[in-house]
Amino acid sequence: MRSIEKVLLEFDPETRNLLPALKKISAAFGYVSEKDAKKTAEYFSIPLSKTYETASFYDLVWTKKQPSLAVQVCSGTNCAVSGSFEVIKEMENYLKIKAGDGFNSKIKLEIISCLGQCGEGPVVVVNGKIFTRVTASGVHGILEEWL
After folding, report:
1. What's the pLDDT tens digit per position in 43-66?
2. Which fold has domain 69-144?
3. Distance CA 78, CA 136 (A)
4. Ordered alpha helix ranges (H), the chain
């Protein structure tokens, strides 16, 4: 298992590296814990509030422990035009939860902004794995792998 210190040492302690470091911490540990945020702030010599401000702004950096199944669907313009809202509706029906509902501790379905893969939409991220050109009819096949 990796330690927070090992992850941080992969980056020069310059402010421009804060976001890449937070992304790596989030990916390695599932989220950026309060303890990890403090160590990150110290490493970069920035206020803790700047660490949280950066972490909470971006969709792919989590500041809370994630459920065992985290599903994100892009709602950027190109994904929306390509059918992302139909994909979301089908996921809601299949998972029996509403997007954005924070009451289920095991499954999280959220609508997020652009993932920068506009020509590949609709884009879905399941526990960090990216699926492109997802259709409503393809939702079951994707989610069956995770349930």
Report:
1. 999 999 999 888 888 767 878 777
2. Glutaredoxin (3.40.30)
3. 16
4. 4-8, 18-29, 34-44, 48-57, 77-81, 84-95, 139-144
